[in-house]
Design a protein that fits this description.
The protein is mostly helical. It has three helices and no strands.
């Protein structure tokens, strides 16, 4: 049941993502959803293994605040990396054209 709540919260984050994340053509529409769902599930399992009770407020605070934070930083990292890769590829194509 708890993972269903995380799934619904990831959907909500994915719906809000186009409005709060910088617009980019370097990642698809499902990337924020998959990052939020993956990070939420990973945080939930990690803190469950660490002994947090499912009904305790701390596990919910950590997961619900961690999901958007991880999504924000991961999307920024993906965008930065892909911009750099595109610039390197463009430079490579320009150098091949001159040779």
């Amino acid at each position: 049941m708890e993972l269903a709540v995380i799934f619904v919260y990831a959907i909500l984050l994915a719906l809000v993502a186009p409005f709060v994340l910088p617009k980019s053509d370097f990642y698809g529409k499902l990337v924020p959803f998959s990052l939020a769902l993956g990070s939420g599930s990973l945080l939930w399992v990690l803190f469950t293994w660490l002994g947090f009770d499912h009904q305790a407020a701390w596990i919910w605070f950590i997961v619900m605040l961690g999901m958007p934070a991880v999504t924000w930083f991961a999307v920024g990292f993906i965008q930065k990396t892909r911009v750099a890769q595109e610039a390197a590829e463009l430079q490579s194509l320009r150098l091949r054209g001159k040779a």
